[in-house]
Structure formats: C-alpha cells, structure tokens
Amino acid sequence: MSIQTRPYALHDDKKRLQTLGALVSLLASAQQTSGAFNLFDAILPTCFSTPLHIHYVEDVAVFVLEGVLTFFWGDEKMEARAGSYFFQPRGVPHGFRVTGSNPARILYMTLPAGFDEFVIERSKPVNNFESMVSEAHFKIEILGSLPE
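RE: above sequence
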C-alpha cells in the first residue's frame, strides 16, 4: 500500500454526510490516499454516543478540536477536552460519548482506509438486518451500549 503520488487539496468541496447521528465531512477517502488512511471532521451533537464496538481491520486515531467527550477503551475511560488525542488499536473494544453541554468536534482517522465506505453506506437509511450485514462486511463488532 502506498500513498498516492499526486498531492491534492481540499477546500469547501468536502463531502458532508449526516451519518450515525453526526455531521461528518470526509477529508481523505481511500481513493485519495491509495488505501493508506481515511480522515474525517465530525461534529457530534450533545449527548452523542457510539456503541461499545471493535474495529477488526483498522486502527482509530481521534483528535478533539472542540467540546468534552468521555472515551472508553478496554476497561478504561478518560475525559477528553480540546487538544486531547486518543489512539485506539484494532481489536480493542472502544467508544466515546459527548459529555459536555455543547456539541463536540473531532478529527477522526482510520488506518488503513476503508471505513469511509462504511460511513457513506450508513448515511442511508437501513433496517437492523442491513445494519448487521454492513457491520459484518466491514468487520466491526457492536458489543452494546457504553458503560456509565
């Protein structure tokens, strides 16, 4: 896998999606990075929460730009404010929730790429069966709700 050899710039022509309860801008797709990584800018509403889940294919890196979140990974949890960074290796149960009184904004990177296809797919309405098929296809296991 090699990163594309031709530089590109992205300005206001970002692909924006309402997906999984968040407003997500796709900054770097698998196609643009030759499969090396994906990069998203996500605005998360107050009380947003991911389920506790495992990525089996990609590592996840999250940089908090605005807001307050609580991150969970393995048996640990930690509060994160603007400037916080988290690395969540593949195979480790993890998730996060917005815990502040304001929305949060994060940069979300997956390595290698491919998660962009999941995010795009989940921006369309799906039923429970389609959701489970999508998760299986992208090798993501949903374990349930985050702990309190």
